[in-house]
Structure formats: structure tokens, C-alpha cells
Amino acid sequence: MAKGRKAGRSELDLDFEALAALEEARGLPHGPERTEALKKAGLLRKAADSQGIVFAKRGRPAKD
Predict the structure, then answer these.
(1) pTM of the full predicted structure?
(2) Gap between the Cα atoms of 45 and 59, Å rounded
(3) Range scoring the smallest mean pLDDT among 3-7, 12-16, 51-55
(4) Domain assignment present for 24
(5) Domain range enclosing 27
(6) Is residue 15 situated within a structural domain?
């Protein structure tokens, strides 16, 4: 049931959670707990980025 709730979050919510998780992880002492917290922050950042606007590649258009 938690997955359904998380799927409905907006990009800004995920971005905010990623920033908060990163700040929390940076405050932890070095060790396995900090490593896991940094991984969680990275996953939240990727989730926020995946919901963002997809831009076309720059450069010359492809030949047909």
C-alpha cells in the first residue's frame, strides 16, 4: 500500500525529500548507517529526476 502512495508524489516533493535525506546523511558519522542514508538520498534524487521534464538531445537533428 505504501508504494501506491509514493507513486502519487510530485517531483517537488521527491526533490525536497532527497535534499532533506542528503542533509541528514551528511550529519551522520562515517560508517554503514551514513552509507545507507546516502544511498537512500541518491535513490530519491533519481526518482525526482525521472519524473522531471524530458528534454530533447541537443545538436543536429537525426538524418531520415
Answers:
(1) 0.60
(2) 27
(3) 3-7
(4) yes
(5) 10-50
(6) yes
